Amino acid sequence: MQMRFLPSIITALTALTLTSCSTTTAEQYEATALTSYTWLVLYANNLTSQPQPRIETFANTSMLNRNGFKPPGAVVGPDERGLWWPTLPPRPGVDEVEQRKKTQEEAGKPELVKNVKYKLTYEVVNTQNTLPTNYEVYRQVVKAYPQRTPLELTLGVNDNSVEKAEPVSK
After folding, report:
1. By C-alpha distance, which of 141, 119, 140 is closest to 130?
2. H helix runs in 92-134, sequence order
3. Which segments of 33-168 does DSSP mark as H helices, in order?
4. What integer pLDDT is reported at residue 149 of this predicted model?
């Protein structure tokens, strides 16, 4: 009985998904990639069997890449993705790690985590928008930016992100 409604539900969801995304053309834009290093330590009563250990964050450093250009103070890079990285933050010492340990907990070894957050800022009809994006969009902007090539942007669901950027022929 209920199987006959399934095709209707699938069609409605597909239509909703397709209409939830939109496109826009931007002539003024800037892509950023925030690269960061962070030292983390896991804490748990039993590090090998506890499914969700507590995570403590120690020192971190970050650097803002803009449109693929070398940021001031960059020391590492560009890497295989064209990104520049900051200096490494100081590794937490044994005393720091032990200070954050709670009774009966074990502390893991400090782990250095690399992270990148991509954003695209663009202007359409005198309105500036900044949305999260991905590596592929960042790279498209890096290639298009020197010539200021207009880009057609495909926005994600509810226009909450930029999923795709393609050059527009003039």
Report:
1. 119
2. 94-99
3. 94-99, 135-144
4. 97
The span from the CA of 35 to the CA of 60, in Å, is 11
Whether pTM > 0.90 for this model: the answer is: no
Q: Are 66 and 56 in contact (CB under 8 A)?
A: no
> What does the pLDDT read at residue 16?
47
Distance CA 69, CA 155 (A): 25
Q: Is 52 exposed, middle or buried (0-12, 13-18, 19+ CB in 10 A)?
A: exposed
Beta bridge partners of 43: 54, 107
Nearest to 100, CA basis, from 60, 56, 59:
56
* Residues 6+ positions from 93 with CB-CB distance below 8 Å: none
Bridge partners, residue 106, by sequence: 44
Tokens of 160: 């909450």
Query: Which residues in the chain show pLDDT less than 50?
Result: 1, 11-18
Number of residues in the chain: 170
Residue 17 is predicted with a pLDDT of 47
Phi, psi of 163 (to 5 degrees): -95, -25
Tell me if 75 sits within 8 A of 83, measured CB to CB.
no
